[in-house]
Structure formats: structure tokens, C-alpha cells
Amino acid sequence: MSHEDKGKNFYLEMDGAMSYPIVWVNGKIVGGWPYGYNSFQLDLTPYMNVGDNQVAIRLDNPNESSRWYPGGGIYRDVWLITVASTHVGQWGTFITSRDVSARSATLDLAVEVQNNGDTKSKIDVTTDVHEYDAKTGQIGAKVAAFPQYTVLVAAGKTASHTTTTAVKKPLLWGPPPFQTPNLYMAVTKLHSGSQVIDTFETRFGIRTFAYEPNKGLIVNGEHIPIRGTNQHHDIGALGAAYNHRAQQRHLDILQSFGSNAIRMSHNPPAPGLMDLADEMGFLVMDEIFDCWVLGKTTNDFHLIFPDWHEPDLRAFIRRDRNHPSIFVWSVGNEVGEQQTGDDGAKVAQELVDIAHDMDPTRPVTASMNSAHPNQPFPVVMDVLSLNYQGQGIRDTPNYSQLGGIGTPPAYPAFHGNFSRKMLESSESASALSSRGTFIFPVLEQGDSAPVNDTSGGNSTTFQVSAYELYSADYGSSADKEFRSLDQNPYVAGEFVWTGWDYLGEPTPYNVRSSYSGIVDLAGFPKERFYIYQSRWQPDLRMAHILPHWTWPDRAGKVTPVHVFSSGDEAELFVNGKSQGRQTKEPLTYRFRWDKVVYHPGELHVVTYKDGKVWAKDTVQTAGEPARLRLTADRSKITADGLDLSYLSVEVLDHQGRFVPQATNAITFSVSGAGQLVATDNGDPSDYVSFPSPKRHAYSGRALAIVKGEKGQPGKVVVEASADGLASSKVTLHTIS
Ligand code: GAL
């Protein structure tokens, strides 16, 4: 601290630290915040000296603290904030819009001014509203101003005032493809006499949400079906440590199959992820807890719930409430309190009341996998969020041999009992698969079955078949989930478990990562990607054949062929011979030719929509691996030590055809102004450490993640090589 900074205030703000962080300054304890996912701020001012200061942070990460991989350490950004002793409080603005029309929108802004000084402060508060360009991060033209006012804030006190203004012809925030996620920036200034002593920026959006029990979510007057996925906080091979580009790539890939919504399962997300959701137009179900008083693992949040649920919930909402993307707060996931009658409902009510107190503009929910419509728990919720039970659990013949609770589809009963509440599926599917791995024989009866060694699974290789017909015992394939939504069109939509594979919780086999992703841990599309694309992007001309057609040991054997397409008819050709033209029957979501016999050559499909050719796909039998092909998602990255290029490598044969079962050992080398950060291949059972430069291809592919050296712009050469194969090189440029 310099002499000039004497009299100022110093805050340490942590976006998240796993877990139980305790902070000392110059050997004196300042405080802490146990929940490793929440953001918090500590006032360091009383402990600071002129000259050097030492900040020490201790973390404790007990075993059994979570049902998934929580990460460990200081895994999100940390900020040291220096402000005048009178300043805008932590997350101290709240901006909401009402009376929104094409002509104007009314904005209400509450500003909290905090005076930590020894004397009364007289402050003039001004706030201007500007357009904001999220692509460049530039604040644009001023479009409105809140009326200026003066506050007198006593020493050690906080004063909050609300003012109102209007924006003419507002540019609304809304999800693509039919709406645009426009943002604004409110710039608040605290003036003491002629001096500006604090400037505080609040990014926000103007939009309306309506929650229609018979229709679903209405955004700015347009019905938007929720096409969502669940998102754990890890970013694959990079672990839990937040990286903005990695997170952006996650969302890019979700958007590429038509997803428009994210559920933050089951904890406060990184602030950067919330920013990305706003910028890219994702609808967000923002969630805070996986358990309340009743725990799920020995050392999870239940240990501190009595003392911390209120501060945590208040901090969570206060931090995130200006994000236009959030349409609902979720205070819990599958909590045990669903089943403890009035006692459980009382806990739920307390949390819902706190959420309403912090934000009167949004509804509150908690995800229910077992609460029945006639129990007290759902009565407390503004929006009803069902996990799996909406579509039915173990209720179809293929699941009938399983133990465990069976539930008929619960959407009708919930809708019937709560005719004024919007209903959504907060977890659907839990379909399981390993990218590019197909296991025979293939299910013929029905389109959804639990995984076991005779049904889509192999407990020796730890893989699950990519025919995309198999699921967790309590889950279903995508087909069943789509059917249940089509049969109950009042349901607002769904959040699939999950968009991406994630670290930990690997059902059905005990490996490193999950099988439930629509894309694998490396971000490579599984076959399932295309069934979602066919439904969520109905206007996109697409057809996708599965399986691959390189089966040296299957000549003469029945090898079913399925096709996902946004078309309504399809004709399959095997080596030029038609296998028949099919029409997609109502409530079915794939074309299938179950009796195809494998002979090497070519599969070709032509799909039709309304009788006209719509989209085609071709798959050819590949030869032996001959070469590698390396491709970068971005060849120019910033030389800041954080920005990343993702390089995919594919194994090809002599003719340049993709070799779908290749497992060649690949070595990545990086030279020049960059470094290899991690590698992956999306194989849930691969235990090679993520930073390793050596990685086997899995189902023909592998991934390398490269960053530039900080402050050293230049060329980076990345090479992928493997014994006996022609190698491949890509040159990246890092720029300042
Ligand atoms: C759900 C749970 C999720 C995850 C999922 C696995 O019941 O809410 O957190 O455990 O099952 O399929």
C-alpha cells in the first residue's frame, strides 16, 4: 500500500475457492467463506500497512464433499479492489425493467452507497445508461440517464435509493436464433463535491419473461421452448480451474446443436460463465445447492447448511441478479427434504422467501425427482422442475426387470394439480454412450433400455454403445424424452443430463468421467449430438448415419443402420442398393434399418422433407491408418497466457478417409511462442494425466490444448505424430 492510498478501502474478492477458504493479512485472521462455489468479499482495510503486505489463504478440501469432481484450490479469479472509503457496496446495484414495449422500457435502479469512513458523507449519485457491445467490450452511446440525487450516509452505514428512468426504443435481450442478446451498461458515479470518488458499472439487459402453465416460457412475447443442457463447472481436461476461452468453447459447442439454455447444476457458476450466457443469449436456470439439511455425502453442504444457507443464498442472488439470462432461481437439486413432508416444505419455504426478498422479479424453483404432486414440497415452488419423473422412471418394458422405484410419467399429474404453475424438465435423459464405440447386438424392441453387459454396455472395456439407445437405470434415451415432451406440450422444455461429459460421477462404470454428455469430455460430438440437432434445429438441412462402416470382423453380420435427420423421410443405400424408403412415424425420432448386413463399401442416405430432397450423408469403409490431420479451432490467439487454441487430430487412411476405430499413440509437440496445456480424447476410461503430450486416439480422434506465452507474441508450431503414420503440423499465431 502506498502513502497516497492511506484512507482508502481494500477488498479481497474471490470468485470461488475450493473450499473453506480462510484469509489472513499480515498474520491476522480476516475471515473466510466455506462454500467453495460462492463468490465473496473480505474487507482487508483494518489489516493493511503502508508498504508491503502479506495475504495468506488457507483452503481445506475434505473428501466426500461432493457427488462429482469439485476441483480444489483457488480455481477462479481473485481481485484486490481499492476504493474510496465511500463507495458503491459489493454487487451494490440492482437494475430491473418493466413496461417493456417496442417504444420504451422503464428501468428501476437501486444503488447502495456504503460509507466506511469516520464521518458523514454527502454524495451526489448519477447513473447514465449506455448501449454496450459485448463483442468488443465497448460502452457505446448514452441512451438514458437516471435522475441525479444526493444522499447523506452516516459513518459506518449504507444507504440505498431507487430511481427510475426510461429507455426509448429498447434493444431487447433474447435468445438466438430469432432474437438477439442485446446488452446495456449502466455507469454509476459517486460525486463528492466536484470529485468522482467511485465509478461502478452494471451490465444488464431489457427483456420480459412470462411463465405460462399451458405453454411454457415466453420471452419478449415469443414462446421459446427450453432446449437446455445441464452444466457442471469443470472444463474437461483443464479441470475446475476457470478459463474463459475454454468455457466459451463449451457454450459454442452447445449452441452448435441448437441448445438455448443452461442449468447451472448444482452450484453457483463462475461469474465469467454468467457473462458468456448473457452475451450468447442462453437462458439460465441459476442453481445454488445440491443438498440442504439432509446431506448426500459425508462432508457436503449439509454440515454448514444451518449457519450458511442464508448468507450463501443472499450472496448468490445479489451477485447474479443483474444478468438478463437468468429466468429462474433454483434453490436445490433433488434434496432429501422432498420426502419429509411439512418439515421439508418449511425449509423450502424459507429459501424461497429469501430468494423473493433478494429478487422480487423472478420465480424460484427446486428440482424434484421424487416429490409427488400431492405432497407439500411442490406447493412452495413458483415453477415446477422435474428430474426424470416427468418422462417416467423405469416405466417401460425394457426397464421392468430393474429394482428401484418405478414412476409413470408425472407431467400430467403435476400439471393437473398445479394449473397455474409452469412446468419444466430440469433433468432429462441421462442417456449414456462412448463416442464412436458401437456394441452388438443392438436393441430392437423399443428405443430406450438400461445399460448392462448384454444391453449396450461392456464392463471389461468400460464403454457404452453409441447407438444412443441406452441410459442410466432411472433415465432414458433422447427418443423417449422427446416423445414425452411431444405428448405433454404444456411442458416448457428440458435440460438434458448432460450437454458435455464431466469429471467424476461416471455411471455405469467406475472411471474418470461421465458418459452422459451429448459431446464427450474433449468436446467431440457423439452420435447423440445429431439427434438433438435434428430436433432443436429443425430448419437445418442435416442427416447423420450411424454406425461407422469399417468393421473388418463383421462381414456378413447384421449391423443395424440408424439415421438422425431433420427430414421426414429417408432412403438408405448400402453399396448402391436401396434398403427401402422410410417415413418418420409420429413420436419416433430416428430412421432405422435393423437388418442391414455388413459388407465393406459405402452407406448413403438421402432424406426428404415435404417430399423434396432435404439432406444427404455418406459413410465409407476406411483402410488402414496412414496419416494424421491436425486442425486448429482458432489459428490466431491472444498472447496472454490464457487464450487457447484447441487442435483436433484425426487418423486418416491413404485415401484421406477417417479411420473410426483408430487408437494410434499420438505425440503432440509444441515449439515457439506457446505451450501445450493438456490433451484428451474423450475416452471416459483414459487415465493418462491431462497434461501429458502423449495420448492415444480414441475412436480415431484426439485433442491438444495450446496457449501462447504471455507477452511474447509470435509463431507457435504444433505437430502431431504417431509411429508409422505421416505426421501433421499447424502453425498458430499469437498476437498482443
Ligand atoms: C441426477 C442428479 C444429477 C446427477 C444425475 C446422474 O439424479 O440430480 O446430479 O447425479 O442424476 O444421472
From TrEMBL:
Residues 556-615 form the DUF4982 domain. Pfam families: DUF4982, Glyco_hydro2_C5, Glyco_hydro_2, Glyco_hydro_2_C. Keywords: Glycosidase, Hydrolase. GO terms for molecular function: hydrolase activity, hydrolyzing O-glycosyl compounds. The keyword Hydrolase applies. InterPro entries: Beta-gal/glucu_dom_sf (IPR036156), DUF4982 (IPR032311), Galactose-bd-like_sf (IPR008979), GalB-like (IPR048229), GH (IPR017853), GH2_Domain-Containing (IPR051913), Glyco_hydro2_dom5 (IPR040605), Glyco_hydro_2 (IPR006101). One of its GO terms (biological process) is carbohydrate metabolic process. Residues 215-390 form the Glycoside hydrolase family 2 catalytic domain. Residues 628-731 form the Glycoside hydrolase family domain. Residues 93-207 form the Glycoside hydrolase family 2 immunoglobulin-like beta-sandwich domain. Belongs to the glycosyl hydrolase 2 family. This is Glycoside hydrolase family 2 protein. It comes from Trichoderma harzianum CBS 226.95.
